[in-house]
Every structure is written in structure tokens, then in C-alpha cells.
Amino acid sequence: MTTIRNIVLVHGGFVDGSGWQGVHERLTADGYRVAVVQNPTLSLTGDVTATRQVLDDLDGPAVLVGHSYGGAVITEAGRHPGVAALVYIAAFAPDKGESVGTLTSDPAPGAPVPPILPPADGFLALDRERFAASFAADLPAAQAAFMADSQVPWGVDALGGTVSEPAWRTRPSWYLVAADDRMIPPPVQRSMAERAGSTVTEIPGSHAVYVSRPASVAAVIAQAAEAVSAQP
């Protein structure tokens, strides 16, 4: 058996890796070595490269974790030989040939639609006035306002980047569904998790559940690490 002590956290669109701080603190307190990828979010290819560079520097196998668009990144990057398991946190889990763009192109009637503004110079942003309600409804108002004002532009090429071969077909996966998410509807999360054969945990939380509920998120990640560590 190999004990998994490495965790790699991959953020999604419109944000950077600092949102993982609470999860990082809890996992490191439990003895894990945690690395946070800072995606350029210009293209899926670039973000996969950034993630694989972090994986290359580790001294052993890792659990690879993605939030939101970060799920597409880990789905592609997760075939790296150092990845023992995948964890999706309110994240996209595309299949071969799918992208975040294709997965969001035909929302179900009545489903919440993220307040994404029209592209500007090849980048996307969320409407600041609607950011809190859509992305971070369970965070303090001041914190949600700061996240809205500190948005990272998300490249249109990242939205359209397609997965070549999904890592969840060859790696065990876990999925945390945020039951109050208004960016990726919970039914869509459940459907992707079922398709990937993921072990599912569902908790109340907005799309920013990794910020608002760090202990619960860290617990799912630790569960994955412990499960693959127990395998012969």
C-alpha cells in the first residue's frame, strides 16, 4: 500500500488559488502536503500544463482536486502517472470531446443561468452586481463583494477547451455536490458525478462551497486520500 500525502488543488474560472486557503489550512494541519495550482485560465491546454508541472514536482502520488472549471482541468490533467484519485468540488467533469462550453450550452428550463457578461477582448467576467447571488450566496456580503471586485478574467479559449480522454475513466473519483449552487445546477452536478462513477457527498452550499465550507470540502478530499491509500 502507498500512503497518499500529496494534495493538489485546482481553482476554476473568475477566481484564483487563494480561495483554497481554508481547505489548505485544514489539510496541512492533518499532515498533508498541499500544493495550489495558479491557473492562467487563458486556455484549457495552458491550465493542464500548469497543473502537470505541479504534479511533476511532487515526491509521490497525489489526489488531484478541481473546483468548477478546475474540474475540466483535472479531467484532462488527471491522466498524469502521479495522480491516484480525482476529487470534483461543484465541478465540471467532461467526457471525451466535451468542454465547459458544451456542458453549459443548453440549460434545462428554469435552471439558473450564470450572469456571464459578453466576451471582451477574448475574456469573460461575471456581472459584479449579480456575482454574490450566483457564485457566493453563503459568504458574508463583504467577502462576496471582494471576490466580485477581484475577479480574474476567464479566457474564452478555456471555456471552449475540449477534453481528449477523461481521467475519471481510469482513476477513482469523488464528487461533492453543492446543493444550493446557482452556477452549475445541482442536477447537472449529480448527473456528471453519476456518469463518472464518483463517490458522492452532497451538502448545502453555494458555488463557493470550497470557501464557505472548507472543513466539509477537506473531509471529502481526505476521504479520497484515505480510500486510495488503503488499496493494495
Briefly say what this structure is.
The protein has 10 helices and 8 strands. It is α/β, with parallel strands linked by helices and 232 residues long. It has one domain: Rossmann fold (3-Layer(aba) Sandwich).
Q: Summarize model confidence as the mean pLDDT.
A: 96
What number of structural domains do the residues give? 1
Q: Quickly name the level 1 CATH class.
A: Alpha Beta
Largest sheet: 6 strands, parallel
Task: Explain how this protein is built.
The structure is a single chain. The protein has 232 residues and is an alpha/beta fold. It has one domain: Alpha/Beta hydrolase fold, catalytic domain (Rossmann fold). 38% of the residues lie in helices and 16% in strands. The protein contains ten helices and eight strands. It has helices at residues 21-29, 44-56, 70-77, 100-103, 128-135, 141-149, 156-160, 186-196, 209-212, 214-229; strands at 6-10, 33-37, 62-67, 83-89, 123-124, 154-155, 173-178, 199-203. The strands form two sheets. The chain has a six-stranded parallel beta sheet with strand order 2-1-3-4-7-8, sandwiched between helices. It has a two-stranded antiparallel sheet with strand order 5-6. β1, α1 and β2 (33-37) form a beta-alpha-beta unit. α2 crosses α3 (70-77) and α5 (128-135) packs across α6. The longest helix has 16 residues, at 214-229. The termini are close together. Residues 7-219 form the AB hydrolase-1 domain. Pfam families: Abhydrolase_6. Keywords: Hydrolase.
Features:
232 residues; alpha/beta; Rossmann fold; six-stranded parallel beta sheet; globular; AB_hydrolase_1; Sec-Metab_Biosynth_Hydrolase; AB_hydrolase_fold; hydrolase activity
